[in-house]
């Protein structure tokens, strides 16, 4: 099916993350440069070595808190000289910056691509509590090709759509609320040993079950927690990455496929686009789901993590509820540790690159108190609904 | 209620205004005899441009739903029901809509529903009610 799998020549050579504030007093650009300069130094490079910049989604020219800094602004601010750069929302979800950057290296445009993602939703919420509500984003009629099919029905947030996937999963597979709870509880347990996590106090099943229903069956604790943060990842040509201080983490395979409509309601309700991305990723490697030692799976809403578990074949289809029941299998000492930094549910909504940052942190054995057993293979997956991208990462 | 209204285009106008004649109009391809949604100028399955709005029965089943409790803005009357309706004409042909006239606690996946319209300005919003005759 695929006979040119060039992402294997691309490796992660360094990572960086700003403070994770709720809110942070730092500017969006300061958060960004903190993360980027840290990542460049971590890779043993200087800013003059960076010849490419990638970001998802970019700043859309409006500096919105969802993505206040794009490639253009960063290039100017850091004084970079790049051969290629790109951003933009259209793509396979929050990992699109990594995927595009890897392509730029594989195509010979760049040697070292700086990929970053900045978000300042916490600062925004200080002045506008409903900043994320879809209907409040635009004045007048909805011209969005996709949201216009949902906002007239008071779909105010992606949670309404995610909640309908959760309801369907419960209907088709008998998934229970107490099972779904394990995503939030596992993330919180992991966040307790992550000094950079947003929420670090213990969370019990009783607290989860009695928490406020936002959009049934999803509760407050099924929603990720907004924050101000920036994450940066350095992608390098594999042969060049070998010269760096870190053992290269190869991009073994990318999943970016979308074989269904870009739509929240016309796609597979229990598989989303995740099934397409995951199928592609496994078709580009000889590794198997059983090789995965740490899985960082999108938890913008908890139900997405369940769907990714199944889509990636980390548990059988429809079995995610049973798989995570009790939480032992997905705990740090379980057979498949997930979201070991607390995910977005408790670690903070760094939105996408946080999963890659944590996958690498674990592979390199730098996770401190939350470090899991040594392993070579990790998967990072991000996106919900029609947005889906996944990476298989290997430290040889 | 103060619903967000859609901008009408050449492609979407039929869907949002079919209710003026009590019709739910879904785009249909004359070549592969399939409906598709959202509407567009070309069939996404076969590429044929012999497509256009066609009245459907307005009947369907609840494929999934959620009860929204969050007060996203002061104008909203919560809780309210958002659902995906699978139209009876074709497997997988779904619309997002609201279920009205039934208490949230009585909503179930699989219930049969029938369209009704709420007219606001130049838009007829297709909403659904649980059918009492089945
Ligand atoms: Zn056709």
TrEMBL record, chain A:
Entry's Gene Ontology molecular function annotations: acetyl-CoA C-acyltransferase activity
Residues of the signal peptide: none
Boundaries of every Thiolase C-terminal domain copy: 267-390
The protein, known as: Thiolase family protein
From TrEMBL, chain B:
Keyword DNA-binding belongs to the record: yes
Entry keyword DNA-binding: yes
Keywords noted in UniProt: DNA-binding
SUPFAM superfamilies: Nucleic acid-binding proteins (SSF50249)
A single GO molecular function term of this UniProt record: DNA binding
InterPro entries: ChsH2_C (IPR002878), ChsH2_Znr (IPR022002), NA-bd_OB-fold (IPR012340), Thioester_dehydratase-like (IPR052513)
Domain ChsH2 rubredoxin-like zinc ribbon span(s) in chain numbering: 16-50
Location of the ChsH2 C-terminal OB-fold domain: 55-118
Domain of life according to the entry: Bacteria
PANTHER family (alphabetical): BLR3430 PROTEIN (PTHR34075)
Protein name: DNA-binding protein
Source species: Pseudomaricurvus hydrocarbonicus
């Amino acid at each position: 099916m695929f006979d040119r799998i060039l992402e294997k020549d691309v490796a992660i050579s360094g990572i960086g993350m700003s403070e994770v504030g709720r809110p942070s007093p730092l500017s969006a650009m300061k958060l960004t440069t903190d993360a980027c300069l840290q990542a460049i130094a971590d890779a043993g490079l200087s800013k003059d070595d960076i010849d490419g910049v990638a970001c998802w989604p970019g700043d859309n020219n409006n500096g919105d808190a969802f993505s206040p800094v794009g490639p253009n602004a960063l290039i100017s601010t850091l004084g970079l000289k790049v051969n290629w750069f790109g951003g933009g929302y259209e793509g396979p979800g929050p990992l699109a910056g990594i995927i595009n950057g890897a392509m730029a290296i594989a195509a010979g445009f760049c040697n070292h691509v700086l990929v970053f993602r900045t978000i300042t939703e916490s600062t925004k919420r200080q002045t506008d509590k409903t900043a994320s509500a879809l209907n409040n984003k635009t004045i007048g009629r909805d011209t969005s090709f996709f949201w216009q099919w949902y906002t007239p029905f008071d779909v105010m947030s992606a949670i309404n759509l995610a909640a309908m996937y959760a309801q369907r999963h419960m209907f088709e597979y008998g998934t229970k609320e107490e099972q779904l709870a394990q995503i939030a509880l596992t993330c919180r347990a992991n966040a307790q040993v992550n000094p950079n996590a947003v929420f670090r106090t213990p969370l019990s099943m009783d607290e989860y079950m009695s928490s406020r229903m936002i959009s049934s069956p999803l509760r407050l604790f099924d929603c990720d927690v907004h924050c101000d943060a920036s994450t940066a990842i350095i992608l390098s040509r594999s042969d060049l990455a070998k010269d760096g201080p870190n053992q290269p983490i190869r991009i073994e395979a990318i999943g970016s496929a979308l074989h269904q409509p870009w739509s929240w309601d016309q796609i597979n309700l229990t598989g989303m686009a995740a099934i397409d991305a995951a199928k592609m990723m496994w078709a580009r490697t000889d590794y198997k789901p059983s090789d995965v030692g740490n899985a960082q799976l999108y938890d913008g809403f908890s139900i997405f993590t369940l769907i990714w578990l199944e889509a990636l074949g980390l548990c059988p289809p429809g079995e995610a509820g049973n798989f995570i029941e009790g939480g032992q299998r997905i705990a740090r000492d379980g057979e498949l540790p997930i979201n070991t930094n607390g995910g977005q549910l408790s670690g903070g909504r760094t939105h996408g690159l946080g999963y890659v940052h944590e996958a690498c942190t674990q592979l390199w054995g730098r996770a401190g108190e939350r470090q899991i057993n040594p392993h070579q293979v990790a998967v990072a997956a991000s996106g919900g609904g029609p947005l889906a991208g996944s990476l298989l990462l290997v430290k040889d | 209620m103060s619903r967000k209204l859609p901008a009408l285009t050449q492609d979407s106008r039929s869907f949002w205004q079919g209710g003026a004649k009590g019709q739910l109009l879904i785009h249909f391809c004359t070549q592969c005899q399939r409906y598709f949604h959202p509407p567009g100028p070309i069939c996404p399955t076969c590429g044929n441009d012999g497509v256009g709005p066609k009245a459907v029965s307005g009947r369907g089943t609840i494929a999934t739903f959620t009860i929204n409790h969050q007060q996203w803005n002061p104008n909203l009357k919560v809780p309210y029901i958002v659902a995906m309706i699978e139209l009876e004409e074709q497997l997988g042909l779904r619309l997002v809509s609201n279920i009205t006239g039934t208490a949230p606690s009585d909503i179930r996946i699989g219930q049969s529903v029938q369209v009704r319209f709420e007219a606001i300005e130049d838009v007829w919003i297709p909403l659904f009610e649980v059918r009492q005759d089945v």
